[in-house]
Amino acid sequence: MEQKIPDTFSSQAKDFLQLCLATVPEQRWTAEDLQSHPFVANLELDSDN
């Protein structure tokens, strides 16, 4: 079953969440896989925090 994600989320955010929430284990990405997803890989982190 596909999760309903708000339309206000970016397409990358929606894709990332769908991969996190996949109910079929074989379709669900691992934490290591998710680190390479563009939604996470393109984040700019504030070094002061």
Automatic annotation (TrEMBL):
Top enzyme class: transferase
Keyword Transferase: yes
Name recorded for this polypeptide: Putative mitogen-activated protein kinase kinase kinase
GO MF term set: MAP kinase kinase kinase activity
Keywords assigned: Kinase, Transferase
Gene3D superfamilies for the chain: Transferase(Phosphotransferase) domain 1
InterPro entries in the cross-refs: Kinase-like_dom_sf, Plant_MAPKKK
EC assignment: 2.7.11.25
